[in-house]
């Protein structure tokens, strides 16, 4: 991103200088090709020496850094292996030799399905850091990130298919696909970036008291809430949005309680204020990735519960 700033400032300087001296006779015809659709011509002779410098810092260079890709790929494989081992010890301690398909559409009142949507989107974001760091083009990064996240989640689902207490869930796989598709759609349709998947977590009473089966956070559904953050300033009419701070979002969330493992329980719907981490004044490629990552978290803010009964909360986790 530092290199991008240099080019941006350089571009402004060249534009101003060119506009002042374009009619003089001491200019020469030269070109700095930034991409197939943008060519700057007739750079003044006094600036012609920077041609080579600009070539060296061209941000649109499409050469893939295979060394970085190998490094990041090794880290991703290592993390994936660690997650696999962790889940194998927690859920797949014994394996059935027979693959099973289990229809669990009503399991946990859909909170697990929403979790699969969120998880696939988050994993795609993580993969994007790897592909962006290896200098993949934006479209390539979006496609490969979504595909990698979907492949990882489907691998987990297939493993579940051999688990004695589980099974391959078509519903989970569908929501994995929706999560990856939404991530990719946000690249092709930028308006969708105004909708940000988020999560919040506060350990449930069962988990705190050690009564939660399995004892792992990822399966503590009663402690989880999943949200869709909305950048209301960007989608409301200008006459209204001009009064809304750019950092303020509105989130719609879902949580569950009193699950009994037999299809019972209660679903709750919330509306709460939220914060847009992308408005934090830190700049550069690394910090942008950090801010995007923080945006997956719903920050505790005032809100209301709509169902099953209305209530106001000073803080909603």
Descriptive terms for the model:
globular; 2 domains; two-stranded antiparallel ribbon; alpha+beta; 18% strand; 44% helix; 317 residues
How many discrete structural domains?
2
Q: Approximately what portion of the residues adopt beta-strand conformation? A: 15-25%
- The percentage helix is 40-55%
Biggest sheet character: 6 strands, antiparallel
Name the poorly predicted regions: 1-58
Question: Count of helices?
Answer: 10
**Structural shape:** globular
Q: What's the total number of strands?
A: 8
Q: How widely separated are the two ends?
A: 34 Å
Largest sheet: spatial strand order: 3-4-5-6-7-8
Residue-averaged pLDDT: 80
Instruction: Give the structural class.
Output: alpha+beta
Rg, alpha carbons: 25 Å
What is the string of SSEs from the N terminus onward?
HEEHHHHHEHEHHEEHEE
């Amino acid at each position: 991103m530092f290199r991008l700033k240099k080019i941006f400032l350089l571009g402004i300087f060249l534009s101003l200088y060119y506009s002042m001296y374009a009619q003089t006779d001491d200019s020469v015809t030269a070109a700095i090709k930034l991409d197939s659709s943008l060519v700057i011509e007739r750079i003044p002779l006094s600036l012609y020496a920077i041609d080579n410098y600009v070539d060296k810092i061209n941000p649109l260079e499409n050469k893939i850094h295979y060394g970085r890709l190998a490094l990041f790929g090794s880290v991703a494989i290592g993390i994936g292996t660690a997650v696999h081992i962790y889940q194998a010890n927690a859920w797949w301690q014994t394996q059935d030799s027979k693959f099973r398909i289990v229809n669990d559409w009503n399991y946990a009142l859909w909170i697990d399905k929403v979790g699969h949507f969120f998880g696939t989107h988050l994993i795609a974001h993580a993969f994007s850091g790897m592909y962006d760091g290896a200098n993949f083009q934006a479209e390539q990064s979006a496609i490969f990130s979504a595909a990698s996240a979907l492949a990882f989640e489907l691998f987990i689902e297939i493993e579940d298919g051999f688990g004695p207490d589980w099974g391959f869930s078509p519903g989970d796989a569908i929501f994995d696909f929706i999560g990856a598709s939404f991530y990719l759609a946000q690249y092709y349709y930028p308006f969708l970036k105004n909708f940000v998947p988020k999560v919040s977590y506060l350990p449930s009473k069962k988990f705190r008291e050690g009564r939660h089966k399995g004892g792992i956070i990822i399966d503590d559904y009663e402690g989880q809430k999943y949200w869709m953050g909305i950048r209301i300033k960007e989608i409301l009419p200008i006459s209204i949005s001009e009064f809304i701070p750019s950092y303020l979002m509105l989130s719609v969330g879902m949580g569950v309680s009193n699950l009994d493992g037999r299809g019972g329980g209660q679903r709750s719907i919330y509306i709460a204020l939220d914060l847009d981490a992308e408005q934090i004044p830190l700049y550069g490629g690394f910090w942008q990735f950090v801010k995007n990552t923080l945006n997956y978290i719903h920050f505790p803010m005032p809100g209301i519960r709509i169902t099953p009964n209305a209530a106001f909360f000073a803080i909603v986790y």
